[in-house]
Amino acid sequence: MNITVQRFEEIGSTNDEAARQARFGAPEGLCIVARRQTAGRGRHGRTWVSEKDAGLYFSIVLRPRFESRFLSLITLAAGVAVYDTLKELGISPDIKWVNDVLVGDRKISGILAETVETPGGLAVILGIGINLTSKNFPPEVAGTATSIVAELKRNGIATIAVEEVLVKYLGYWYEMLKGESGPAEVIDNWRIRSTYFAGKQVRVTVSDTVIEGETDGLEPNGALRLITSDGSATIVQAGDVQRLRSDE
Ligand code: BTN
Predict the structure, then answer these.
(1) Model confidence band, residue 247 (pLDDT cutoffs 50, 70, 90)
(2) Which of 59, 121, 130, 162 stands 20 to 30 A from 34 (CA)?
(3) Which of 48, 50, 116 to mutate to test the pocket of ligand 1 (most atoms within 8 A of CB)?
(4) Nearest CA to ligand 1 atom 11
């Protein structure tokens, strides 16, 4: 993949800018990076607080040409890439289905993949936020989030140092996904990095429905298999996962 990076001091959302440029024909590999986002977005319409230089705010344009049933694996491949990035920096993360990268129970990175129709075909805008410092965490996330600087007990880290490692692993795992056995490889590599793959008691919220059960692996398209308390199997295509402690 041919990577080009456009840098912004401040932007609404790097995902929106990447989508805008994709609609104008931007090629696969265009990356948008901003020092600050004024309208950073998370999943389910949540805000992604994006103070200046407190995080890596990164989006890349992808133009996947593989079977559409595997598109959902882009998010899992991105989770693996973020995991490997943090590992290389000296952190031991975990991945919570489908796209939260955690250290212990605290979130350090979030991934937002969005599709956009463009004259050149469907594009996927893969947005990644990685917390660099915990200094300016707003009160609502301070108890549940962490950052690279906090985990490494350092004074600071250069955004570019994180970005370069991330781009390396994103390229690697995206190329892997495109190969013939790519989907199975991505799932297998997600499995060995995530304690959520199997045997974890979780509560999954899907729109207004809440399901509790034990994780039981992933489907070939990355959907989560759950065994509920009556022993029946359920497949969750999308939803929010929360770990259940034994006393809950
Ligand atoms: C989540 O965990 O809810 C996903 C968070 C994704 C945040 C990133 S930051 C860069 C990109 N631009 C956005 O507006 N969102 C993503």
Answers:
(1) low
(2) 121
(3) 48
(4) 127
Give the pLDDT band of residue 136 (cuts 50, 70, 90): confident
Q: Is the CB of 95 under 6 A from ligand 1?
A: no
pTM for the whole structure: 0.96
CB of 59 shorter than 6 A to ligand 1: yes
Q: Indicate whether residue 127 lines ligand 1 (CB < 6 A).
A: yes
**Domains of the chain: total:** 2
User: 149 and 237: one domain?
Assistant: no
pLDDT at 248: 57
Residue 129 sits in the same domain as residue 82:
yes
Q: For residue 25, which amino acid is it?
A: G
- Domain span including residue 151: 4-193
Residue 248 is assigned to a structural domain of this protein: no
Q: Which residue out of 112, 126, 130 has the highest number of ligand 1 atoms within 8 Å of its CB and is therefore the one to mutate? A: 112
Residue whose Cα lies nearest atom 2 of ligand 1: it is 110
Q: pLDDT at residue 229 above 90?
A: no
Higher local confidence (pLDDT), 69 or 189: 189
- Using the predicted structure, report yes or no on whether residue 21 has a pLDDT greater than 90: yes
